[in-house]
Automatic annotation (TrEMBL):
Superkingdom classification of source: Bacteria
UniProt cross-references to SUPFAM superfamilies, sorted A to Z: Nucleotidylyl transferase (SSF52374)
Gene: trpS
Residues annotated to bind ATP: 11-13, 19-20, 148-150, 186
Organism, as annotated: Roseateles amylovorans
Name of the protein this chain belongs to: Tryptophan--tRNA ligase
Length: 327
């Protein structure tokens, strides 16, 4: 039986951090053996919000793909490609736009808020972004889209777009389902969401000494001023990272040691440093090999793009026929 198709994209943000790994990539690696996975670099999506920032885009794209591969995304199992290399997405986007009520896009949660906050986002491209996403998904007839809860409305609009197309023309585009999977939202070094913008991230390829330095400088429970002061782990961003990295014995040791001042904060941070460095070691090894052979990365993307194109073209052909455009 053919495997169900999963589609997921990531904006090219350059080198990825541990938040990207635990929030998405780890899941991709898990999914690729059970589903026919299509993973793409969403560079057009990046331009919907950062259209003035073209410098460094190419570098960001390839740095990110290197991190995907380093994390264990396997181009033999999954299809990796770049959105802007696929004009087929743009054609389907245009065709779907004809019958999509603009109110569906205007009512997307966050659209109005984001435009009110930043007038530079009052563009046609940003408004149309969920429809472009729908085209990205529907062109591959993906059965599933892995999402966090906040993105579920985007899958919903894709389903509505598909329903409308199927009703108006022909039952061609399957409605995808949101695949709610177990991911961890990794907090950053200061307890807020891990983000390059906040300067609180550990990159997937940070050198071991950089990781150690970043973790040692992390703020801790503000009440624990001196070594002999007891602390409360729930008030500490280090503890939040231990939730992802430490086993239950280590967590019990920290909880008791922190509350009784039996351990110091540097003692507490060491197992975290060790765990992150252990996790990174195979990534670094794979990334070093790829960085020494950049043509290989380009080739992987090339092969994936052509594989994706064959599927996209087939769907477009059907869509053109259904819409009376096969001349
Ligand atoms: Fe945070 Fe650990 Fe220090 Fe407690 S011992 S305040 S959990 S770093």
């Amino acid at each position: 039986m053919p495997r169900q198709r999963v589609l997921s994209g990531m904006r090219p943000t350059g080198a990825l951090h541990l938040g990207h790994y635990h929030g998405a990539l780890k899941n991709w690696v898990r999914l690729q053996s059970s589903y026919d996975c299509f993973f793409f670099v969403a560079d057009w999506h990046a331009l919907t919000t950062h259209y003035q920032h073209r410098e460094g885009l190419e570098q960001s794209v390839y740095d990110m793909v290197v991190d995907w591969l380093a994390a264990g995304v396997d181009p033999e199992q999954a299809t990796l490609f770049i959105q802007s290399r696929m004009p087929e997405h743009a054609e389907l986007f245009t065709l779907l736009a004809m019958s999509t009520p603009s109110s569906w896009l205007e009512r997307m949660p966050s659209y109005k808020d984001m435009v009110a906050e930043n007038r530079e986002l009052a563009t046609y491209g940003f408004l149309g972004y969920p429809l472009l996403q729908a085209a990205d998904i529907l062109i591959y007839k993906a059965g599933f889209v892995p999402v966090g809860e906040d993105q579920a409305p985007h899958v919903e609009v894709t389903r509505e777009v598909a329903r409308r197309f199927n009703h108006l023309y022909a039952p061609l585009l399957p409605e995808p389902q949101a695949l709610l999977t177990e991911t961890s939202r990794l907090p950053g070094l200061d307890g807020r969401k891990m983000s390059k913008t906040y300067g609180n991230a550990i990159a997937m390829r940070d050198a071991p000494e950089v990781v150690a330095d970043k973790v040692r400088r992390m703020p801790t429970d503000p009440q624990r001023v001196r070594r002999q002061d007891p602390g409360d782990p729930t008030q500490c961003p280090v503890w939040a990272l231990h939730q992802v990295y430490a086993d239950s014995d280590t967590r019990a040791w920290i909880d008791a040691g922190c509350r009784s001042a039996g351990i110091g904060c540097l003692d507490c941070k060491q197992p975290l440093i060790d765990a992150i460095q252990r996790e990174q070691a195979p990534w670094r090894e794979r990334a070093d090999e790829l960085l020494a052979d950049p043509k290989k990365v380009h080739w992987i993307v090339e092969v994936g793009t052509e594989r994706a194109r064959a599927v996209a073209r087939k769907t477009l052909k059907e869509v053109r026929v259904a819409m009376g455009l096969a001349y």
